[in-house]
Design a protein that fits this description.
The complex is a heterodimer of chains A (321) and B (333). Chain A is an all-alpha fold and 321 residues long. Chain A is 74% helix and 2% strand. In chain A, the strands form two sheets. Chain A has a two-stranded antiparallel sheet with strand order 1-4. In chain A, strands 2-3 form a two-stranded antiparallel ribbon. In chain A, α4 runs antiparallel to α5, α5 runs antiparallel to α11 and α9 packs across α11. Chain A is globular and about 65 Å long. Chain B is mainly alpha-helical and 333 residues long. Chain B has a single domain, classed as Orthogonal Bundle (ABC transporter involved in vitamin B12 uptake, BtuC), CATH 1.10.3470. Helices cover 72% and strands 2% of the residues of chain B. Chain B contains 13 helices and four strands. In chain B, β2 and β3 form a beta hairpin. In chain B, α4 packs antiparallel against α5 and α7 crosses α8. Chain B is globular. Classes of the chains: A mainly alpha (321), B mainly alpha (333). Chains A and B meet through α6, α10, α12 and α14 of A and α4, α5, α10, α11 and α13 of B.
């Protein structure tokens, strides 16, 4: 290994190294940081963002964006809470899944088959779904009438084998989607479409179809996140997911997925989500206000992406004149 | 930028045709549905509409330049809030206590400088690191918002200066101050983009960055100037808005970037860069504001506005693609 190789390795794995340094630093600053309770707490509170980020990873690898996941999550949360009291949780969950998947299908149709720009389409859908949610709920907050008599709270508040259910769902879905992305023909198609769409088409891959499925996966993940969110609080505002789309994207980018498509993995996205969660938690534990994390996240995102592309081009500074 | 062919006329004129048809629709529908007695086209109502368009409109003009340049800026909302705080808070600083009302221009200048500095940070990072502007400004959106919160916690920052409020509420020649600022900004930036070297370079860089480099344009400093420009305009928008309201909530300006981008895209500017028009952006801003006010006027729920704007945005994108056959390198499948 020459020195350049070592430098490249450090830059490539920079995000993991930085993560390790963060954890060591916070552990020294506050002994409770690495206690099992704290770790479970962090992962649990990251689970909703995490599940959404898993789906968005597929969309980003296929070379597109999904900015509608935040308002879509508000939609699914409101719908499942509303239907819970009307038709019971057993029917409410599949009904809400069907509705959310329809929204994802609409995104996928517009971006995949009509080939419209995904940034603007999902920006439009962000606004449209927000309007849809408000129209559905009439602008009111929703609460489940009988909060003690329902088993619906299991998804957000329950534990199994001593581990909170949201964590199990997050890790379970991560494992499932990780296998789909890394080990199945469909996963390879997603990379091919994002890496070089024209080449993928010439290889006989149905590009529009692949993109469509990616958006369906994204909306499916959003529906699951909605169930966790609704179940955790058993009541919700119309704007519960507002702004989450950009946090989700930040986690995916932090994990090293390129916005140009074709690169990224589920494992790295999980790391990205955990980095955001642990930084937030660590800063709180050392006594800083919650908003300091925004500034830290800013610096980390830019450093992470910068190091990544610097390693690829072999020089630190860009060649822009 | 020369119009002449039918399709380019359609593209440049479409947004204004849309604005006019919105006016007609809401005037007619308002006759039957509106609960208020005044007509939709009532002069007072229209003047108010222009004034309310100003905060988004001023930023949208800057965003048009950024997008013609092939970049995007997601941090404008946070810049807006931070500059608002600087404007209001600096008026209460003890070092300016002796200035009397002369504190107003000093505070405005401080706010504008803050905006330019924030824009310069983004521009420098884009230039020097080569990271995509989308990611740089996504990070900055979080970072600047963090700075907003660090300034005063979760408390609003408030300070009413009545001289400033009077100035903001003045109506020179019938138009509000905010409207004047919007019109002047639009005029100046329109001139810059169509009549100066900097404007021509912006189109060239957005259309083909490599060719622009080969033609001797210094792309880095050029983009830096544009980011400083949008920072300045976000700050100007904050000055215009907070001069009258006098109170900044730390969450102010959230989702502004999305409204602004919507207005710019409605005006026909390409996300990929190289094409766009400042005047059409003004049309896009007015179209959104008309839709908001018009739907309220005919008694529709405010929530339908979001639904309508989202669907219109997608429809515009679809129509634009059908009309615009040029620049399609994608394979037809």
């Amino acid at each position: 290994m020459s020195r350049a190789d070592i430098g490249r390795f450090l830059a490539r794995q920079g995000i993991l190294i930085a993560f390790a340094l963060f954890i060591i630093g916070f552990t020294i600053a506050n002994g409770r940081f690495l206690s099992p309770d704290n770790i479970l707490g962090v992962v649990r509170s990251s689970a909703i963002l995490g599940v959404m980020a898993l789906g968005v990873t597929f969309v980003v690898i296929s070379g597109h964006l999904d900015l509608s996941v935040g308002s879509m999550m508000s939609f699914s949360t409101i719908v499942v809470l509303d239907l819970h009291d009307k038709i019971g949780p057993v029917l409410a969950i599949p009904a809400m899944f069907a509705m959310t998947l329809c929204l994802g299908a609409f995104n996928g149709f517009l971006v995949g088959y009509l080939k419209l720009n995904s940034l603007i389409v999902t920006l439009g859908m962000l606004s449209a779904i927000h309007g849809l949610t408000l129209t559905y709920s009439g602008g009111k907050n929703l609460d489940i009438a009988d909060k003690d008599g329902t088993w619906f709270d299991i998804f957000g508040q329950g534990t199994a084998l001593g581990i909170p259910v949201p964590i199990l769902m997050f890790l379970g879905i991560a494992a499932l989607l990780g296998i789909v992305l890394a080990k199945t023909p469909f996963g390879r198609k997603v990379y091919a479409v994002g890496g070089n769409g024209t080449a993928a088409t010439f290889s006989g891959i149905r590009r529009a179809h692949t993109v469509f499925i990616c958006y369906m996966i994204s909306s499916g993940c959003v529906a699951i996140a909605g169930v966790i969110q609704a179940s955790r609080s058993l009541g919700s505002q119309n704007t519960v997911g507002q702004g989450l789309e950009l946090d989700v994207l930040a986690a995916v980018i932090l994990g090293g997925a390129s916005l140009l498509g074709g690169s990224g993995t589920i494992f790295k996205t999980v790391i990205g989500v955990l980095i955001l969660g642990f930084i937030q938690n660590g800063l709180l534990l050392v006594g800083l206000d919650f908003y300091v994390q925004y500034v830290v996240t800013w610096v980390i995102i830019i450093l992470a992406v910068w190091l990544d592309i610097a390693a690829k081009r072999g020089r630190l500074w860009s060649s822009i004149a | 930028m020369k119009s002449g062919t039918l399709s380019s006329f359609l593209k440049n004129g479409a947004i204004w045709a849309f604005v006019v048809s919105e006016l007609i629709f809401f005037s007619v529908a308002g006759q039957f549905l509106s609960l208020s007695d005044s007509a939709f086209m009532d002069p007072g109502n229209m003047l108010l509409l222009l004034k309310q368009s100003a905060p988004i409109g001023i930023i949208a003009v800057g965003m048009t330049v950024i997008m013609i340049n092939g970049n995007i800026d997601l941090s404008v909302g946070a810049t807006f809030a931070l500059c608002g705080i600087v404007l209001l808070d600096s008026m209460t600083w003890p070092i300016f206590a002796g200035l009397g009302d002369w504190v107003i221009p000093v505070s405005c200048l401080l706010a504008l400088l803050t905006g330019v500095a924030l824009g310069a940070i983004n521009g420098l990072i884009v230039w020097k690191t080569g990271v995509d502007a989308f990611i740089v400004t996504l990070g900055a959106m979080l970072g600047f918002r963090g700075l907003v919160f660090m300034y005063n916690g979760e408390n609003p920052t408030s300070h009413l200066n009545w001289t400033l409020v009077d100035f903001a509420e003045a109506q020179a020649l019938g138009l509000h101050t905010a409207t004047w600022v919007l019109l002047i900004v639009t005029g100046v930036i329109w001139y810059v983009m169509t009549r100066t070297v900097h404007g021509r370079n912006a189109f060239a860089v957005g259309d083909n960055r490599e060719a622009a480099v080969n033609a001797g344009i210094r792309v880095g400093p050029h983009m830096l100037i544009n980011f400083m420009l949008i920072g300045f305009l976000s700050a100007l928008s904050a000055v215009v808005f907070y001069a009258e309201s006098g109170s900044v909530n730390p969450n102010d300006g959230q989702l502004y970037e999305l409204w602004v981008i919507t207005a710019v895209v409605l005006g026909g500017t390409k996300l990929t860069g190289g094409a766009g028009s400042i005047l059409s952006t003004l049309g896009g801003v007015l179209a959104i504001q008309l839709l908001r006010k018009g739907l309220g006027h005919i008694g529709a729920d405010t929530e339908t506005v979001n639904l309508a704007i989202g669907l219109i945005l997608i429809a515009v994108l679809f129509l634009d693609r059908q009309l615009n056959t040029r620049g399609k390198e994608e394979l037809k499948i």
